[in-house]
Write a structure and sequence with these properties.
Layout: E1 2-3, H1 6-15, E2 22-23, H2 38-47, E3 51-59, H3 65-74, E4 80-88, H4 95-106, E5 110-114, H5 120-129, E6 132-134, H6 145-152, E7 157-160, H7 164-172, E8 175-178, H8 183-195, H9 200-209, H10 212-231
Parallel strand pairs: 1-2, 3-4, 3-6, 4-5, 6-7, 7-8
Helix pairs in contact: 2-5, 3-4, 3-8
Length: 232
């Protein structure tokens, strides 16, 4: 079996020493549309020069929508635009998330796009148009492909404490980690990431370790390792 976490590989190797486990680095495509896409274009038009803080993906309970709504109410609407782009899982929302959604729909400093973006280049354009990525997810100890995508376009990410994303963000210096409930600190750190972004070489180092070439190499090692174990 293959995992995205070195800790998961080490744990299972200790439990099942006769089996073969491999670390596979997450990776993502960096293609952009030849012209500004519909969603990215609408986002930039709405922003009108304001800094864009983006939450994207499948918008479910883990994505911490209430925290985003609280930040939106506190932030200067003339300076910051909060963007929520992705497929909204509204039937599974808690009451708190439904209240947050209603507040976001009324806010002047919020851009909402409900719908899965099938075109990866269009999604990449939305990330590239943003200034920082909000990924302070609840109950999310693993990694996220969004962290990889953000690094492809030199975009800093705010992540939750206590998980794999914190390790990557801090080890590579491509973001900050934040408690999932402290919205004052979230807003402060997002603004800090925008005003004092990580060094470009930090992103380059992360991209080198999470490239498609590294993924293909690790996959080859995994297949070879499985074959070798099976031949024993």
């Amino acid at each position: 079996m293959a995992f995205l976490s070195a800790e998961a590989v080490a744990l299972r190797q200790r439990i099942f020493p006769a089996k073969y486990f491999q670390l596979l680095p997450d990776c993502a495509g960096d293609q952009l549309p030849q012209q500004v896409g519909k969603v990215a274009g609408a986002l930039l038009k709405k922003a009108a020069g304001r800094k864009i803080l983006l939450l994207t993906g499948i918008i479910d309970e883990r994505k911490n929508l209430p925290a985003l709504a609280k930040m939106g109410a506190k932030a200067d609407p003339a300076r910051i635009l909060f963007a929520v782009i992705g497929q909204f899982s509204i039937p599974g929302f808690s009451r708190e998330s439904r209240v947050a959604m209603a507040a976001l729909e009324k806010a002047e400093n919020v851009f909402l796009h409900d719908g899965y973006i099938e075109d990866e280049a269009e999604l990449n354009a939305c990330i590239a148009a943003s200034d920082a990525i909000f990924a302070v997810y609840k109950n999310f100890p693993g990694s996220s492909n969004l962290l990889v995508k953000a690094a492809l376009f030199d975009k800093p990410t705010l992540v939750p404490t206590g998980g794999l994303m914190q390790k990557y963000a801090e080890d590579y210096g491509i973001g900050l980690a934040q408690d999932v409930e402290d919205t004052d600190a979230m807003l402060k750190n997002l603004c800090l990431l925008v005003s004092q972004p990580p060094k470009k070489e930090n992103y380059a180092r992360f991209r080198a370790d999470f490239s498609r070439e590294k993924w293909e190499s690790a996959l080859g090692e995994f297949v070879a390792g499985c074959v070798a174990r099976g031949a024993q």
